Amino acid sequence: MKWQHGNTWYRVVGDLKSGKTPVMVLHGGPGAAHNYLIPIAEMIAQTGRAAVLYDQIGCGNSTHLPDAPKEFWRPELFMEELELLTKHLGIADNYAIIGQSWGGMLGMQFAISQPAGLKALVVADSPASMAVWVSEANRLRDELPKEIQATLLKHEADGTTYDPAYEAAVSVFNDRHVCRIPQPQCLIDSFNQIAADPTVYHTMNGPSEFHVIGSLKDWDIRPDLHKIKVPTLLVSGQHDEATPEMVREVQSLIPGSVWELFPESSHTPQLEEPARFKRIVSQWLDQNAD
Predict the structure, then answer these.
(1) Catalytic residue positions?
(2) Do residues 290 and 20 touch, judged by C-beta distance below 8 A?
(3) pLDDT-derived band of residue 268, with 50, 70 and 90 as boundaries?
(4) CA distance linking residue 117 with residue 98, whole number of Å
(5) How many C-beta atoms lie closer than 10 Å to residue 241's C-beta?
(6) What is the model's pLDDT at position 211?
(7) HSE-up (13 A, CA, CB side) for residue 259
């Protein structure tokens, strides 16, 4: 799809004319691209419902904009992109959203605007406040081995978060709270997308999940969550960096929302407990999206 800021790459998995409400699949990062969500799209397509994978502008197969000013990278940019893509696909009057991590944040902010064609929302592993996200991430960080904590603190203080030692320390956190199984290739591919072009992630988030110094630092949509009127399913993992405490608050603020906690998962239950994820999400979509 070509629009004013470049080209947005997308791929439709399944048949948009199947008669079932199609699902837009929103990836995280920001800037992680679609790769690690391919299993979600394939799960959805197996139920006869089309899923649309796409790379948000600035990453993956879409146009990269490394010289764009920091103020360019705002949630509203990605909300516009999402709306234009639904129109481009001819589904603007009937679609659902599954957003994971940052994608869930984007999905919630988009749903707050009450777009007419949105029928249902699935929010996977997402905060509604970056202040809460950072607070919870640092609480989990305090449980890491002391030497790992010391490495993180040193490089953050020195401004050397690009150092391999810092990245190795972050991986210890990730192994506990991002993906607790050996990382499948699709997840590695998404991490590699950020490594290849960290513009969006570093500008909006920062150097790591718990050192958020980017433009999303003060992002907080909790006061507006009551404006979400579509059926909403929240999913998250027991060991998730989007902690149960965090998601419990989100559920309390979205009227009528349902929350499913995955006991063996961290931040990627679609990879860590795929059979349960497919069953819960597909059944919920069948009951709420058509």
Answers:
(1) 101, 240, 267
(2) yes
(3) very high
(4) 14
(5) 24
(6) 73
(7) 21
* Angstrom distances, CA of residue 167 to CA of 144, 152, 199, 240: 14, 9, 17, 19
H helices of the chain, in order, are: 38-45, 75-89, 102-112, 130-141, 146-158, 164-177, 185-196, 199-204, 244-253, 269-272, 274-288
Q: Which residues lie below 8 Å from residue 75, measured CB to CB, with a gap of 6+?
A: 105, 106, 109, 216, 219
Distance between the two ends of the chain, CA-based, in angstroms? 26
Tokens of 85: 């893509």
- Contact partners, residue 256, CB within 8 Å, separation at least 6: 231, 232
Taking the C-alpha atoms of residue 91 and residue 229, their distance in angstroms, rounded to an integer, is 19
Closest CA to 30 of 92, 77, 67: 77
Calculate Rg over the CA atoms of the chain: 18
The yes-or-no verdict on residue 207 having pLDDT over 80 is no
Cis peptide before 223 (omega within 30 of 0): no
Nearest in space to 246 (alpha carbons), one of 225, 216, 277: 225
Give the predicted TM-score (pTM) of the model. 0.95
Give the count of beta carbons closer than 10 Å to the beta carbon of residue 208: 21
Structural domain tally of the chain? 1
Positive or negative, the Cα torsion across 28, 31, 36, 38? positive
CATH number of the domain enclosing 173: 3.40.50.1820
Give Cα 107 distance to the centre of its chain: 9
Task: Give the domain extent around 145.
Answer: 2-288
Q: Cα 159–163–166 angle (5° rounding)?
A: 85
